[in-house]
Amino acid sequence: MSSGGKSSSFFGLKRKDSLALSSGVLTFKTFPNPSLRQAQGRLFSGGELHPSTKLGSTFQLSSLEGGVPRSGEGVNFQSTFSLLFLFLFLLSTSSCTKDEKNPFDDPDNLPPVDSTLIDDIDPASFVGLHQNIFKPTCANSGCHDGTFEPDFRTIESSYNTLVLHPVVKNDPTTSYDYRVQPGNLSQSILWLRLNEDIDGISGIMPLDAFYDPESEWNANKAEHLSNISDWIMNGALDMFGNEPSNNDQQPGIAGIYAEADGNPCDIQQRINVPLGSQQVSVWFAVSDLETPLSEFTYSKVKMSGKIDFVDTLATVYDLELLGSPETHNSFLNEPTEFWHRFTFDANSYAADSTYYIRVLLKDPLQPDTTQIPQDGSQFYIKKYFSWHYVD
């Protein structure tokens, strides 16, 4: 800042730069803002208070002339506000400094390298399989990124949706129980999906490699398959080297079929019962991998006009275990055995409402009764387990 007669302003306060900076004495001539006409401060000279200014002296700012205050006028000048003046002064000079370089303008400023990758892990361990295969090759957007199981986003979700996890999409003869059966390649559908197109339309996994001959999987396919095979045959150990626990799975339902007065009902997201029907029967394809269906200790159906079953008036029906199963299509449109059925009088229900169904099954190997759908199930699942009248 020069020592000429130029005036400048900031924060509504005008400053005249007529005094040498070496003296450190500033004169404030005018204050356009009335609220700034009186203030508190110090005048400094060479880092010390100006000799003519005493602590506790009072004077009007408007009476500052030539840098010498008049005592006995105005408001008290205390040290606190002087620091503000000094800060504003330094702030006004900072605009003369050169702007620092924006680090984001540097093309060589690259993001840090992922330090979670480990170079010396066993490629046939589950950590190695997840790092080298499942995450980079399978956890793609719209595929096994949580959209479809197995969920390969994390090492935990990968293991939990693979090992001893029931099969959803089976082969035409439904010969597989688990996605990965520890110690058994021929009973692990994961191995089948990596080597064969199970139905002629699903493709061989991974699908990206199936359609891209130059993919990393195809370049290293023999090595990847060998590592997966070794992992399964060595017991499908988890990331810590522990053997999988053979926990009993809860019962499940693979399909619904219904008839009204002996005629099949149309099922499009929910059971459509023709108006005027007298008797409705509903079959369920109940499944349990460990417990025979005949050993269930409790098999009931509840029906309510409220989707969340908050009322206490839900009707309870017995769920009958048939002597021999009927075959109908499952949710996946595959022929499936239906072992359970219940029947109700349709005349007992209003024609302008929708009614929701809950199936309750007690597996003796489970601590609690299984309810299907559950309170937290998605709406579209609860909708499948419901019926209403149609004209």
Structural notes for this entry:
This protein has three domains: 7-94, no CATH class; 126-233, no CATH class; 252-390, Immunoglobulin-like (Sandwich), CATH 2.60.40. Helices cover 18% and strands 23% of the residues. The protein has helices at residues 79-93, 126-138, 155-160, 189-195, 207-211, 216-219, 221-233, 379-384, and strands spanning 7-10, 13-16, 44-45, 48-49, 58-59, 75-76, 252-260, 263-264, 266-267, 271-274, 279-287, 298-304, 315-318, 320-329, 335-345, 354-362, 370-372, 386-390. The strands form five sheets. Strands 9, 10, 12, 13, 16, 17 and 18 form a seven-stranded mixed sheet that branches. A hairpin with a 2-residue loop joins strand 7 and strand 8 (263-264). The radius of gyration is 40 Å and the shape is extended. It starts with 6 loop residues before the first strand and ends with a strand.
Structure in a nutshell:
By secondary structure, the chain is α+β, with helices and mostly antiparallel strands. The chain contains 8 helices and 18 strands. It starts with 6 loop residues before the first strand and ends with a strand.
